[in-house]
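Q: How would the structure tokens look for this protein?
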Amino acid sequence: MACLHDHACEDHDCAADWSLYKHVDLSKVSALNEAVPGSVKSVFKAWEQRLNSSEGHLESNDGDPELLVFIPFTSDVKIKSISVVGGADGTSPCKMRAFINRDGIDFSDAQSMQPIQEWDLAENSQGMLEYQTRVSDKMKGCVRGRNEGITLGNYDCFSVQYSRFQGVANLTLHFPENFGGETTQICYIGLKGEATQLKRDVVATIVYEITPNPSDHKTKAESGAGFSHVE
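A: Here is the predicted structure in token form.
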């Protein structure tokens, strides 16, 4: 679902809302079918720079409008909504499909796999449209009594909503077609949400440190006791 900003931007800090670009692992961002290798990195920038294409834009190869963008993060994130600013003259993407925590997706995978969510896009030349991520109901539990909720026997069961886009280590966006242009152009991809404070490389270091390394421990056989049990 697309929606307009629900506030006057001059009275609101939109840059703070759309700050997840700071948590994008830019060195590992990639795109399939980009005409200029590495140009995909130019679309991740501050919200106030979303219409500035002086540093380039992402464009597909001529005659083939399909694009696939892989976005890894430096920490797990929760994504609340996505904004896409496309090109003019029919080059803006008209559909977007999202996959989370799937490495190495190619076009064949993207076309055959079920995305976690997909959207019909509008031409968004000013970057004022955002596409909200899906929220699902998840059963929380049941209590005895007469309250609002789903009634099972003498129990009332309640559900809570949760985002399908939480605990996201990487996001892949598939843009299968556009509004009729020979190529697809994307000038900006904005991500609204929250990031954890713990970096992924820190987590890896912690896991590494708490995993025993047998070479760090002498066996009794090595100590001359005749046993080979690791201490």
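Confidence is low (pLDDT under 50) at residues 146-152, 206-210, 223-231.

The helical segments are 14-17, 107-112, 200-210.

Upvote if useful.
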